[in-house]
## 1
Amino acid sequence: MKMEPENLKKSLEKINGLIKKAAASCGRDTDTIRLVAASKTIPAPTVRKAIEAGITILGENYIQEAGKKFDMLSSCPVSWHFIGHLQSNKAKYAVRLFDLIHSVDSLKLAMQLNKQAQKINKVQQILIQINISGESTKSGIYKDNAFELTKNISGLENLSVKGLMAMPPYFSDPEKVRPYFSAVRSLRDLIKKENIQNIDMNELSMGMTGDFEVAIEEGATLVRIGTAIFGKRD
Ligand SMILES: *Cc1c(COP(=O)(O)O)cnc(C)c1O
């Protein structure tokens, strides 16, 4: 599907309206919710148009693809987030490109990111990705191990944990996803209560095109939306 600037503007207006409405329905301030445009497979010129239409955060899934786009869009006023699965051997590139990495799910990866961030004198902001459905095929750390991982990461000086991220299973009825979102939020609250030094638990990255309104009602602060902005991916 080809996205013209006019269409992009319209879809963004629509999404922002829905975010506002969902926030209002549960008494939240819209300003506490940020839209991450999930731009995987979307070519740089289209991404540029989305930025011109008001997108301020891009979420990319693949290091190589993101690196190419980054070079083409380096003059654009936009923040880059990594939302895909990250292999430890790509940590070096990830810390150079991204302001926030949503998908840290092992100590091994965290240690690599810490090491690479240290080399460039950066404190890398990260989220811990939770495998909230417990399916063995999914990325993310199991709920029961999240506290220990967070605690271990708190000792790494060049990482700063900002919260949790999750990708629940897909259901056509977004109400079916609500218990998963709610479980992520409870886990966040639980970890937050422990007041681990050097750990911030204010961000909840959850909600995509099909379920972002429910995610907002359950406390999402970062919604990652692709299809509703750019149209169906090839
Ligand atoms: C692609 C992707 C999204 C966006 O999905 P849509 O259904 O197109 O909105 C969100 N999060 C992650 C991790 C993704 O890979």
## 2
Amino acid sequence: MDRRRLFANLPSVDKMLSHPRVIELEGQYPRTLLVDIIRAEIDGCRSKILSLTEDEMESFSIEVDELVQNIKNEIEREYALNLTRVINASGVVVHTNLGRSPLSEEIKEDMWEIASRYSNLEYDIQSGGRGSRYSHLEDIIRKITGAEDVLVVNNNAAAVMLVLSTMAKGKEVITSRGELVEIGGSFRIPRVMEESGAKLVEVGTTNKTYAADYEDAITEDTGALLKVHTSNYRVVGFTDTPGLRELKDLGEKYDIPVIEDLGSGLFVDLSKYGITYEPTVMDSLKNGADVVTFSGDKILGGPQAGIIVGKKEYIQKMKKNQLTRALRVDKLIICALEATMRLYLEEDMALKKVPTLRMLTYKIEEIEEKANRLYSLIEKAHISADVKIETGYSQVGGGSLPLERIESRVISIVPENMSVSKLEEEMRLSQDHVIARIYDEKYVLDVRTLFDEEFEIVCDRLKKILG
Ligand SMILES: *Cc1c(COP(=O)(O)O)cnc(C)c1O
């Protein structure tokens, strides 16, 4: 064969488009994308031919079947959504980079129904007139928390901003130096305050702040006392910070509202399940916060949202703030949140059905059972690696309980013919995108954050890579 003959044998785009398997693809994918990919594949062949030596040319032929297969692979890859599923074997339950809380299986039908049909989002079915999108969440969140009123916005950062903008714009807000937190993505409490138009007054020191420090800073310009739950770090040792009750007493004495940003909202006291006590939303209200804000998708286990609960007089004002319109939540979030909240009407139900809570409260026997299950699957796959069940520690994540190490079981893997970091990379880059840790020079899969159906997937992928 000479080069000219090879070029002449190259199929045209039209010829490829009439191939039965390509016609099938045309039914599934956009035609323009398909044509672009066919063209690129043919161009690839052309370059290949140009680069052939005389000898190579002798044995070279154009395989149409192979070309079709390449086109199929390429169009699948290009058409796949960029936002894609990953398997979390990191043991970090509320993993912000991996989408925080996975939603409950229980709510999927409700969500699809609202997503794919019309709804009473802002329509009052009783009167046939206009309704409020916020009304759907009010009753249920009031019922669970006992709060007077509720408002839900885009996320907790937005909630803090709206609260401050409504209650303290142009006024001073007193906060402890020990609580000026930065959470991920450089959300800094001092900056948020500035954006909201409130003026920050820092009191105390990093490790010690007393109620008297707040009291000394109170002036006629004070708009609120703010307590920020230091969710992602702890000042340990010689520390002091006034409790909510003390702030409440001050607030009453000077007629100033007390705001608490709880960060991760909790409705269930997890100390019953072996996790360090954290104030629940109900505790916060009971202890005198006038307004409390928290996230929907941290430990609460719902969709991304910022939930504001507290005194009606303040929340009514927030509802009228122009900012609220810019921070509003859409119907999918409202539906997901309402359906998740419904599970909280009974604590046991929430613990069972909300994946985040379920993962955080597994008994160690349940974790052992999961580890054994994954171990035996891997054992049967006969991979070339040293595989063990070991004790490891999971984390809550999402900037919550930073010091908490929850005892777990992990499968540790040391491949025989591959480096641990190469294995980590191949698992991550594979179609299944398994995200795991390297610890102590071993590849470590924490079973706590694996869903049941993912055990086989992880195992099959290990087999493909190390089999
Ligand atoms: C996480 C957190 C926020 C921000 O919440 P998002 O829902 O991520 O916007 C604000 N304050 C505290 C204390 C937090 O922990």
